């Protein structure tokens, strides 16, 4: 092989290698920088979306807790007022019955026992009513919380789906 043929082959081979490298190179430096910048911006936006979801849901849970606490406070006030009034009435009746027992009025012991039993039953009923109200308020708060959690999961899934191109990075 002569020197001229060798150099001609080397030149053709070099040109072919250059053309192949140029054609098959993934991207230029500017393209990579632009892509990195775009993906960084997408990451920033998605993290901002996640943060806003978290803030919003945190506010929702605070409102749920505040409403539940207000409901329980109202229930407690109502029941304590009912109990107070009930105790005042029952104490007057029982005081009168006790006086009758001291005075030896016939049938006063039975009357005192019956009134004590009634007072106890009314107190039990009021306590059970309060327990039921608290349970109902708790169930409602849980249901609302579950709905908020489900909604937050859906928003997170949507945000994740919108930012799926980040997975290709």
Automatic annotation (TrEMBL):
What keywords were assigned to this record? Answer: Membrane, Transmembrane, Transmembrane helix
Pfam families, sorted: YtxH (PF12732)
Gene3D superfamilies, per the entry? Apolipoprotein (1.20.120.20)
Query: What are the transmembrane regions?
Result: 6-25
Name recorded for this polypeptide? YtxH domain-containing protein
């Amino acid at each position: 092989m002569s020197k001229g043929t060798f150099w001609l082959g080397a030149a053709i081979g070099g040109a072919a290698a250059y053309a192949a490298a140029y054609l098959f190179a993934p991207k230029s430096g500017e393209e990579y920088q632009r892509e990195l910048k775009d993906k960084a911006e997408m990451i920033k936006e998605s993290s901002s979306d996640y943060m806003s979801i978290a803030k919003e849901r945190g506010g929702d849970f605070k409102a749920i807790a505040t409403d539940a606490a207000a409901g329980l406070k109202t229930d407690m006030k109502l029941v304590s007022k009912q109990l107070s009034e009930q105790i005042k009435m029952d104490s007057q009746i029982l005081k009168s019955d006790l006086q009758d027992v001291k005075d030896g009025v016939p049938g006063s012991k039975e009357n005192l026992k019956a009134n004590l039993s009634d007072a106890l039953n009314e107190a039990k009923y009021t306590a059970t009513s309060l327990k039921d109200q608290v349970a109902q308020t708790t169930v409602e708060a849980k249901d609302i919380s579950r709905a908020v959690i489900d909604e937050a999961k859906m928003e997170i899934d949507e945000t994740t789906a919108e930012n799926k191109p980040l997975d290709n990075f």
